[in-house]
Design brief:
There is one protein chain. It is built from eight helices and 13 strands. It is of the alpha+beta class and 255 residues long. Helix 5 packs across helix 8. The chain is globular.
Amino acid sequence: MELRLSTELAKSDKSPSQIARVVTENWFGRNMYCPACRSNRLQKTSDNTKTVDFSCPACQADIQLKSKAGRLGKKVRDAAYHPMIQRIEKNSSPHFAFLEYDKDLWKVKNLLFIPGFFITANTIERCRPLSGTARRAGWVGCNILFSRLPEDAKIFVVQNQKPISAAFVREKWARFAWLEPQKSEARGWATDVLRCVRSLGKQRFFLAEMYSFQQELQNLYPSNKFVKAKIRQQLQVLRDKGLLRFIGKGVYEAI
């Protein structure tokens, strides 16, 4: 995988943001394969296709590319809020690719995927409507909150300028593909409890430690009055999917 971006495309009278989009989309289209199946190519969608930049010709996976010169922050601006929430509820959120590049060297530094099945309503932040004097007055955008995602959701293709093997990327993707057909709330509970497990920062943990997240999860799911029972249920789900091992007497082990 060649990490250098095409500097010829950067020589343009277009705006800096347009140049960045053209250069990074060109690199992505030339180098990227489908992480969801064995297809080694992706197709660029037409410019008027909403929320999708690339699509897999084999499995029809939709991918939205977000690029930034420098490091990504704790949140990334996405498109309109309400259409995004509607796509999440319909289980049709695109997969996201986040590309960081060095603008001085025109070189890819990091590229990570977040599969669409990890994107839930809890990972989306509603922005304030644009002011009445703005060109799109009243328009409401949204942010994707990285802090609301388990580390498992961040699948690197390039990390610190080092490409990761396609086989490893696809293996990590496939490990959580069981989330894709789940309804949005079920996906939300599974990923939120998994995030809580990972945040403990250790392999072996106690059920009592998971109960410390009760209030946080209650805030995310205010209509659920049995959060402790839901935590136990989701730990069983994660166990059945091979992500946890039940040791006994309220003790679990992450796999």
